[in-house]
Design goal:
Layout (H helix, E strand, L loop, with lengths): L2 H22 L1 H8 L3 H4 L1 H20 L5 H21 L3 H27 L7 H30 L1 H22 L11 H8 L2 H21 L2 H9 L6 H25 L1 H22 L3 H29 L4 H31 L3 H23 L5 E3 L15 E3 L2
Antiparallel strand pairs: 1-2
Helix pairs in contact: 1-4, 1-6, 1-7, 1-8, 4-6, 4-15, 5-6, 5-8, 6-7, 6-15, 7-8, 7-12, 7-14, 9-15, 10-13, 10-14, 10-15, 10-16, 12-13, 12-14, 13-14, 13-16, 14-15, 15-16
């Protein structure tokens, strides 16, 4: 694995840690800024809002900036947002700081995915992107539990300082190891926005919002499911969430080579298996060992979807893949919000703690339907150039042709 991919994975690790560690530190944060725990939960929404807004906004602003310089600027903003979170004296300033920390999230992943796809041989582009995403999945195994434990022992501000340090390390690694990648002559905000109007890009984003919403409908309520139905103690849920992260890591490792071989079939299979796993979890949630096995598989299938969606958007955006790649992460955060909302609805309706599994399966099937429609209506041929090079770029910077049908 090139050291540049490792640098990108470190960025993803920091992003994954700061995104999810807040959830585990809500009681400490609430006490520190003198608000209730439910009110402190709005900080999670502030970060997600920053992701949704920042992905298209910052990639648009940086449309003419060379990729390496843009990565450094975005990582610097990430460090600034987390340092501001650690220093925030009140809830209002902390809310603003979490929004600021979320702004570069999608743009970093979008630009990073384009850069990663151009660092390797053409037939390994998806594997390179999936290796960057490994940082995000490893964060769920190591970074989030460690950040939560650090915040509980030394105070919640220490967790944000630790993430800021990770960001500084990533900034140094990017500066040293990522090569310069010039923008083509046609790069610019209008070029990127024109690519976003492609029907296949729109269908890809819709697939991410709906299909991945099924994943989050369950993930958002996994802890109460485990405590109320499986009988797992509160103190053990962190280990179970780490097991979920192990499944996500396995799915990411599988996604790269499978996507390089056959993009759309990998997406179809991932969504179908995710739906099947969610239905299975509805029945296995009451037994510890079957429940844990199913949870691991759900994590794997959720991650298996991420890489093919990312590569598909980059392929269909043609010579302007950066905004499409970044907007994918806005779509995932909308899926997070929408899936959690739908899961909460079925629980509030009195259908029980296991009901989000069935709601999530319906969303996954709907996402599969959108993916199939996109595949059937795709007139772009059997292969597409993923994150295709803009005019003016060298042949060595051109990414892989990936089979999409």
């Amino acid at each position: 694995m090139p050291l540049a991919l490792l640098a990108l994975a470190v960025v993803a690790f920091g992003i994954g840690t700061t995104e999810f560690a807040t959830m585990g530190l809500l009681p400490q944060i609430a006490d520190g800024v003198h608000v209730s725990v439910p009110h402190a939960g709005n900080l999670v929404s502030a970060y997600a809002l920053g992701v949704v807004v920042g992905a298209p906004l910052l990639t648009g602003i940086g449309a003419r900036i060379p990729h390496k310089r843009l990565l450094l600027l975005l990582t610097g903003l990430f460090v600034l947002g987390n340092a501001a979170s650690a220093l925030a004296p009140s809830f209002g300033t902390l809310f603003a700081a979490r929004f600021l920390a979320g702004l570069p999230h999608g743009a970093l992943f979008g630009v990073g995915a384009v850069v990663a796809s151009r660092l390797v041989a053409p037939d390994r582009a998806a594997r390179a992107v999936s290796k960057m995403f490994l940082g995000l999945t490893v964060a769920n195994i190591v970074g989030v539990p460690a950040g939560t434990a650090l915040g509980q022992q030394l105070g919640w501000r220490a967790a944000y300082w630790a993430v800021a340090v990770i960001g500084v390390v990533a900034l140094a690694a990017l500066a040293v190891f990522v090569p310069h990648q010039p923008r083509g002559e046609q790069s610019g905000i209008r070029h990127e926005l024109r690519a976003m109007g492609n029907k296949q890009v729109a269908l890809g984003l819709a697939t991410a919002v709906v299909g991945f919403g099924g994943f989050f409908a369950v993930y958002s309520y996994l802890v109460p499911m485990l405590t109320h139905l499986t009988g797992i103690s509160d103190s053990s849920t962190t280990l179970v969430l780490a097991l979920y992260g192990v499944g996500m890591t396995a799915g990411t490792l599988l996604a790269g080579p499978l996507t390089d071989r056959a993009l759309r079939p990998t997406l179809y299979g991932g969504l179908a298996l995710l739906a099947a796993a969610l239905v299975t979890f509805y029945f296995t949630v009451h037994s510890t060992v079957p429940a844990l096995l199913t949870i691991t598989f759900i994590g794997a299938m959720g991650s298996l979807i991420t890489t093919p969606v990312q590569m598909l958007l980059m392929a269909k955006a043609k010579n302007a893949p950066t905004m499409a790649a970044a907007s994918n992460h806005s779509a995932f955060n909308l899926a997070n919000a929408g899936g959690a909302w739908i899961g909460g609805l079925v629980i509030s309706a009195g259908w029980g703690w296991a009901a989000p599994n069935l709601a999530g399966a319906v969303l996954a099937v709907a996402g599969l339907g959108l993916a199939l429609v996109a595949g059937l209506t795709d007139r772009g041929g059997r292969s597409s150039e993923v994150a295709a090079a803009s005019p003016g770029e060298s042949a060595e910077q051109r990414p892989a042709p990936v089979e999409t049908s």
